[in-house]
């Protein structure tokens, strides 16, 4: 029995977009999957936001735009609901990536707060500031494109760091400053300016890469861990 015959036997007609009983459900199911995905992402990000801000009333005014941006970024990083997958697998995959994304968001916020305190301590130290700017490099094994752009962008969110260029591991500069996508595959190298060599930039990069890989769709993207 061919695949087409199996589909017809199961009461599904992909060309007509109808199921058993003549109900047209392709577009409706797609909209429902998108709605569930967006609501789940928004709820998880909202929970992380409340936990990090300790429900501070002064911070709640920024919650809505922050959640909207977080949902948008998560859709860019992880992609929308997968098409052509069975409902249970799609829900489990979305839930798993959403949980990884919530964990990543919490980790970034925690690192940003801790790093901000450390940078403030260094710059305000008397009689001399405890800073020694230098350059370092970190590697990124995430796939080229959006994953590497997000990786470089988040590295810039870490206090005391600034990603200047992203290039191929073989040394070829891709000509893009501050968050380029690097080569089409393999590894990319980021040139990062740091406020002090004491900052564990390499460790933060490894942990960020692992967490981003867990949040990305597709098993191939998890190899970076």
TrEMBL record:
- From the record, give the transmembrane residue ranges: 33-52, 58-77
Region listing for Disordered, in residue ranges: 1-28, 166-185
Source species, domain of life: Bacteria
GO molecular-function terms, A-Z: monoatomic cation transmembrane transporter activity
How is this protein annotated for GO cellular component? membrane
Keywords carried by this UniProt record: Membrane, Transmembrane, Transmembrane helix
Q: List the InterPro entries hit by this protein, alphabetically.
A: Cation_antiport_E (IPR002758)
Pfam families tied to this protein: MNHE
Query: What name does this protein carry?
Result: Multicomponent Na+:H+ antiporter subunit E
Which species does this protein come from?
Litorihabitans aurantiacus
């Amino acid at each position: 029995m061919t695949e087409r015959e199996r589909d017809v036997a199961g009461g599904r007609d992909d060309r007509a977009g109808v199921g058993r009983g003549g109900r047209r459900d392709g577009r409706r199911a797609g909209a429902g999957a998108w709605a569930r995905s967006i609501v789940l992402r928004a709820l998880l990000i909202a929970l992380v936001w409340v936990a990090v801000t300790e429900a501070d009333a002064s911070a709640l005014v920024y919650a809505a735009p922050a959640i909207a941006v977080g949902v948008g970024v998560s859709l860019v990083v992880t992609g929308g609901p997968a098409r052509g997958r069975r409902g249970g697998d799609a829900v489990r995959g979305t839930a798993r990536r959403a949980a990884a994304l919530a964990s990543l968001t919490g980790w970034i916020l925690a690192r940003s707060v801790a790093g901000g305190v450390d940078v403030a301590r260094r710059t305000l130290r008397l009689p001399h500031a405890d800073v020694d700017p230098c350059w370092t490099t970190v590697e990124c094994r995430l796939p080229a494109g959006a994953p590497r752009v997000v990786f470089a962008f988040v590295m810039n969110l870490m206090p005391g760091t600034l990603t200047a260029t992203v290039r191929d591991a073989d040394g070829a500069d891709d000509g893009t400053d501050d968050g380029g996508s690097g080569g089409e595959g393999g590894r990319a190298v980021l040139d990062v300016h740091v406020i002090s060599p004491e900052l564990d930039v390499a460790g933060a990069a490894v942990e960020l890469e692992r967490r981003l890989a867990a949040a990305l769709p597709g098993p191939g993207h998890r190899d970076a861990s």
